[in-house]
Amino acid sequence: METFKFSTILGMNTEIEAKFTRIDPRNVRKRLIELGANLKQPERLMRRKNYDYGDNRLRKVGGWIRLRDEINRVTLAYKQLDDRTLYGTKEILITVENFEETAIFLTTIGLQIKSYQETKRESWLLEEVEVEIDTWPWVPSFVEIEGKDEESVKKTAKILGFDWGVAKHGSVENVYQEIFDVTEEEIDGWKEIVFSPIPAWLEIKRRG
Fold this sequence. Notes:
The chain is 24% helix and 35% strand. It is α+β, with helices and mostly antiparallel strands. Strands 1, 2, 3, 4, 5, 6, 7, 8, 9 and 10 form a ten-stranded mixed β-sheet that branches. Strand 7 (112-126) and strand 8 (129-135) form a beta hairpin. The longest helix has 10 residues, at 25-34.
């Protein structure tokens, strides 16, 4: 089967976003309030199921299907990581009615669950820029800033006190790689990322 990048034929949306790791959520929250940001959603638990075909044809081109329960809505997305630059993540996202029923639908049409993930997210809006305070299991909280263009993302990062030189882009693997000596391929193979004590097999990979 010929492989291809869906973004080259579908005109997918580009996620213009940057992550800043090892943050203190209290300090970020305080700064957002000082700047007059609007709290869109308090911190809530979010569930994700990631899917691919049995032959991993999506993963081979950097893609995956993500079903996410965001509490206030349920979304289904095709995501693709072309590279780890500001413009390297592509996405097509729709809202669906029900997390469990959509999961059944996806497996019924031949997709396979590759991983289940839990995260916590607090959502703010500063002017037209989305600022998310994200907490994933086993790693320090981080901030994700997403805007309509590079200028707005960089401006927001600056006024929040973040150094653009250490910004991270793309999916969450590079956040885990700051803390643990693991490859992206290893992380992508984890069947669960959930709020529980760090597994013994991962603890031994913690960076000194």
